[in-house]
Amino acid sequence: MTDAVEIDVVPYERSGDPIPLEVTERLADEGRIRYMKYAFRSVGKLQALNEALGERVYKFCGADSWTLRYLLLGCSGIMTAVAAVLPRENVELLRLVQRGEVEAAHRYWYEKLLPWTDCAFYECWQWAHRLALKWMGVISSDRGLPPQRSPNEYQREELKAALRYIGKL
Predict the structure, then answer these.
(1) Strand partners, 17
(2) Phi and psi at residue 37, in whole multiples of 5°?
(3) What is the mean pLDDT of the chain?
(4) CB–CB of 46/40 below 8 Å?
(5) From the CB of residue 148, how many other CB atoms can be counted at a distance below 10 Å?
(6) C-beta of residue 169 within 8 angstroms of C-beta of residue 163
(7) Predicted local distance difference test score (pLDDT) of residue 14
(8) What is the H or E stretch that residue 64 is in?
(9) d(C-alpha 14, C-alpha 64), whole Å
């Protein structure tokens, strides 16, 4: 695939779809990848990637509820659904980690990002994010395509409360 395109290919490692470490190492050794999205939900695997790849591959955290943990363990960027809804907050979290302000990063995570992350991942998280983007005036419709379902009223109220709490409504 890397021979077929003239853009960077970014492997996406996630739970249920792991990439063997040897494959990632080979792709990096051959100069075929410079980036990857990591959402496998294994601290041990991330540490093994860090040891094997060092700085040769820029790793994006791709696991919404593990963002802070993975930034502290070696991911250098964020590529999550929450980052699409709360971009400024994710940039600030990344800035705090990069500056080594770990205690402030923890406070910020728990105050600004965890409330949304906690309530926005029901059975079908896409509707929660679409609804938030609509309420925040970013998009005009939260309509989804079947078979995605709509939120229950209590879920809508919980989302509104979380967005109010973090200052987005």
Answers:
(1) 14
(2) -105, 125
(3) 91
(4) yes
(5) 12
(6) yes
(7) 84
(8) none
(9) 12
User: Confidence class of residue 141 from pLDDT cuts 50, 70 and 90?
Assistant: very high
R_g of the chain, CA atoms, integer Å: 18
Q: Count the neighbouring beta carbons within 10 Å of the beta carbon of residue 92.
A: 16
Q: Which of 17-26, 89-98, 126-135 has the highest mean pLDDT?
A: 89-98
If one counts every other C-beta atom within 10 angstroms of the C-beta of residue 53, the result is 20
Two tokens, residue 1: 């695939």
The pTM is what? Answer: 0.86
Query: In degrees rounded to 5, what are phi and psi of residue 16?
Result: 85, -5
* Domain definitions of the chain by residue range: 1-79, 103-169
Residue carrying the six token digits 């050794």: 29
pLDDT for position 146: 79
Query: What is d(CA 131, CA 161) in angstroms, rounded to the nearest whole number?
Result: 13
Mean pLDDT confidence for 138-148? 88
Tens digit of each residue's pLDDT (9 = 90 or more) over 36-63: 999 988 899 999 999 999 989 999 999 9
Find out if CATH 3.20.20.120 is the number for domain 1-79: yes
Task: Give the H/E segment covering residue 98.
Answer: helix 87-98
CB of 71 within 8 A of CB of 94? Answer: yes
Percent of the chain topping pLDDT 70: 98
